Amino acid sequence: MSPPFDVVALIGSLRRESYTRRLVHGLAAIAPNRLGLEIVEIGGLALYNQDEELNPPSAWSGFRERVGRADAVLFATPEYNRSVPGGLKNAVDVGSRPYGKSVWAGKPCAIVTISPGAVGGFGANHHLRQSLVSLDMPTLQQPEMYLGQAQNLIDASGRFANADTEAYCRRFLETFEGWIARHRGQRAD
Q1: How confident is the model at residue 156 (pLDDT cuts 50, 70, 90)?
Q2: For labelling alongside 186, which of 17, 24, 46, 85 has CA 20 to 30 A away?
Q3: What is the pTM of this model?
Q4: Domain ranges of the chain
Q5: Residue 131: alpha-carbon gap to chain centroid
Q6: What's the CATH architecture for 5-183?
């Protein structure tokens, strides 16, 4: 069997008990054996400022190094004002610089959005996709993952509340595994 794919998960909500964080823990628990899913925290990243590039903060350097080593990225986020939270956008910006040294280029990714509302973060999902296209990240197209009514889907420990949601999340992760394999030039078996 091939070694696991190293997947970093970036969580858009900085709240410790967020639905998004719960979901990522739930996804990690049911992920295929080849997906090694690790949360990379973004809350400590200083706001991106190009003036800092000659002497970047250590958090930027550590973040860029960790994401750069990964085989793929899972973006998991709520929706704030029809877009992604500022912390996640900042992480995208930090990873994309300095110009010509983006850690995102060519790295396969997937997006999952979750919300207590009915729409499931649709606006954030598509807004983030716009940024990822410009960063040359092959983004999983199907199945799309918008999870509405978050409070009814996953408990505080990251367990799925119903079999249908868990099955949908498994299918999403299995498809993501194949997507990573395809873009990393490996077989998905």
Answers
A1: confident
A2: 24
A3: 0.95
A4: 5-183
A5: 13
A6: 3-Layer(aba) Sandwich (3.40)
